Amino acid sequence: QKTLEQERAQRAWECVQEVTSKPQEFKKKYGSLARKVPMLVLPNGLGQTLAFLKAKGKNDPADEHTVLFRHLSSWVLNQVDPSAAASNGDLLRWVLQNDSAAYRRATMEALAFLTWLERFAEAELPTED
């Protein structure tokens, strides 16, 4: 039986591996974004960070902001509310509909996941100059 930390690491690894098959420019942009996002969550909060990703990505599946939003939403929702993960997979919508205790739980899970995502992005993906 894997620990939650091992599962987090595995999922983050899978997300980064998904990105490694994309064009070089996308890999650079995603890699840079994966390094930046944890530092956005801390001062701004999870909700604002998700709103930023969603706004910048414009729901374009070829945009790194949209892909990272999807990766983060999928993992966090599966941890905090699997039924929501199955129904819409939108962490921002979930955060807006839930109380502050749920928001804190989602934030802690997001930061734990993003730590792994950032590590693997540093190891596997190029950066923008």
Q: Which terms summarize this structure?
A:
single chain, 129 residues, mainly alpha, 7 helices
Task: Walk me through the structure.
- This protein is mainly alpha-helical.
- The model has no long low-confidence stretch (mean pLDDT 95).
- The chain is built from 7 helices and no strands.
- The longest helix has 25 residues, at 100-124.
- The protein is 81% helix and 0% strand.
Secondary-structure blueprint:
Elements: H1 4-20, H2 24-44, H3 46-57, H4 64-80, H5 82-87, H6 91-97, H7 100-124
Number of helices: 7
Structural class: mainly alpha
Number of β-strand runs? 0
Order of helices and strands: HHHHHHH
Mean pLDDT: 95
* Share of residues in strands: under 5%
Proportion of residues in helical segments: over 70%
Shape: globular
N/C terminus separation: 41 Å
Main β-sheet description: none
Instruction: Outline the low-pLDDT stretches.
Output: none
Radius of gyration using CA atoms only: 14 Å
